[in-house]
Design a protein that fits this description.
- Helix content is 34%, strand content 14%.
- The chain contains 7 helices and 7 strands, in the order H-E-H-E-E-E-H-H-E-H-E-E-H-H.
- Strands 3-2-1-4-5-7-6 form a 7-stranded mixed β-sheet, with helices on both faces.
- Helix 1 crosses helix 2 and helix 5 crosses helix 6.
- The longest helix has 31 residues.
Length: 290
């Protein structure tokens, strides 16, 4: 997997220049590092840079970190915890009473750096990752809150920097709204690898020159935080934080406003996946005579 992620990272860099910055040294925050392929590409591009990273601990079936860190490489500092369990970064200073596993939460940012040039959010729920007792008791599924969204709430640590996010199912309305929001406060680009995962729905959002003080950025972060809170603690922090229901006219207006740009962004992703599915060995042969 490490080599696969390095190949994906190298292609991503060649196409989007996501790991390139004008400054000689960069600060990177990798929110789901192991095994470390993207971190490796970051250091190849900027050998004088530093990386702060989170990675699941062994108890949560986390992958082994294959990049030198700590004493082996002081440029890379790794904190082995679940990045979604830091409520202080989400504006929550105390765990609501009655939570079954309050000791699982952590407070206080663990790294000396506060702002980053690049934030990498490419984590996803592992099939072998055990669900927390609180989530089982409340019936929270893996897809109730997208993992990338739960990581993005930790990512208000860039200013004119770059955010790299793993997403899925580009055709979904939720992704449409997400891309529309990012396009309003950053320079957005989508990337889908051509070597690995071509048949899958996964792709990467690269958001450059992020403006965290933009009105839409503030609104988006507030929405991510509210979703995390509701999924984690089982109730809304804010009575007004419910999902926004739109009328048909409002949806049509959004499609007219962002639809052309959305198609421009998504078409290369769809084209790569369509070609891969068309040529997949497990697909039945086509009858072009019909």
């Amino acid at each position: 997997m490490f080599n696969m992620m390095k190949i994906i990272g190298r292609e991503l860099q060649d196409v989007t220049q996501a790991f390139s910055f004008d400054r000689t040294s960069t600060q990177t925050l990798d929110l789901c590092m192991a095994p470390g392929g993207f971190t490796s590409i970051t250091l190849e591009e900027k050998p004088t840079g530093v990386v702060d990273a989170f990675s699941l601990p062994d108890a949560d079936e986390g992958f082994r970190v294959l990049v030198g860190h700590g004493k082996k490489d002081p440029r890379v500092q790794v904190h082995r915890t679940d990045v979604t369990m830091w409520p202080g970064e989400l504006g929550v200073q105390t765990v609501p009473g009655g939570h079954l596993e309050p000791s699982d939460f952590h407070f206080g940012w663990p790294f000396p750096r506060q702002l980053y040039d690049l934030v990498i959010c490419d984590g996803q729920t592992l099939r072998k990752q055990p669900a927390r007792k609180e989530e089982v008791d409340r019936g929270v599924g893996k897809d109730d809150v997208n993992v990338a969204e739960r990581q993005e709430v930790e990512s208000d640590r860039w200013d004119r920097g770059t955010l790299l996010v793993l997403l899925h199912r580009c055709h979904k309305w939720r992704i449409f709204r997400l891309l529309k929001a990012f396009d309003s406060f950053s320079d957005t680009q989508l990337f889908k690898p051509t070597v690995f995962h071509r048949e899958k729905s996964s792709f990467y959002l690269i958001a450059k020159n992020v403006q965290p003080d933009h009105e839409e950025a503030i609104r988006a972060l507030r929405g991510f935080r509210d979703k995390w809170f509701a999924a984690t603690f089982g109730f809304e922090r804010d009575a007004t934080a419910k999902d926004e229901w739109l009328s048909a006219d409002e949806i049509q207006s959004l499609l007219l406003e962002f639809g052309p740009k959305f198609k421009e962004l998504a078409r290369p992703v769809w084209a790569t996946q369509a070609e891969a599915l068309r040529n997949a060995k497990w697909m039945p042969p086509r009858d072009d005579s019909k």
